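User: Here's a chain of 273 residues. Predict its fold as tokens.
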Amino acid sequence: MKTNSKSDFCIVTPFHKNSLNEYEKISLNSILNTFKNEDKYFVTFHDNNLQLPNFNKLLFEKYYFKSIDSYNKLCYSLEFYRKFINYKYILICHLDVIVLNKNLIDQIIKKKISYIGAPAGKKNIFDRTRKKLWGRRFFCNGGFSLRNTNDFIKVLESDQISKPINFLTIYECLKSGFIKYFELINQTNSQKKIKKAEFFTKNFYLHEDTFWTYFAKIFYDKFKLPTLNETNKFAFDGDPFFFYMKNKYKLPMALHGHYNYLNFLKKIGYQLN
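Assistant: Prediction complete.
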């Protein structure tokens, strides 16, 4: 790993299997074709013999790769982010991502945004059976996400809670409920043996990207989030035709998640390298 002055960003690809399916190979090629000169790290478990071309291999305990819950714990680990202390940002690229370009990264870094990922879609309240989307919900999906290394470390090292009730926490709790959140905040405030952020994340009941989107700011008030439109320009996650329309018929940096993105790209006349 680099020991000189900080590079702007590196690619980090966590993976829990010892082989790639055909779609994962397409995803990997899109990462390699887009980020030819950037440092790339393959994060996996000890004893995984899989090698990814042009990736440096970083090994962690197998426990972190057993389930979504255990992977969440890796994403709360100071050890994980400290591995990349020589980079200003890490770009998480799961192997269900089709990367199209890197056009926005310099702009995001200049704005010193702490965390950005794809937004979520709201279902049409009048036609839920067909799952049509009618709007976007502010969210930063973690599967393809740019993370400010220092800001993430500052959150996880924090022993302070500022403004536990704010727009972001209310926004999420209206969906997930207030009772669990208030119980966890009260328990966190009473901690004396471990740091408050450490206790909160160890006991957090939602996915890690939900924490970084809505709750990280209570531990570090300078944690900077993007606008909804910036998230939409960054990546799509879900029905790409809907997000494409919302993005004024422009493609984002990447397409993430379980959707037939290859068919979408074919329909709009875009050809992958």
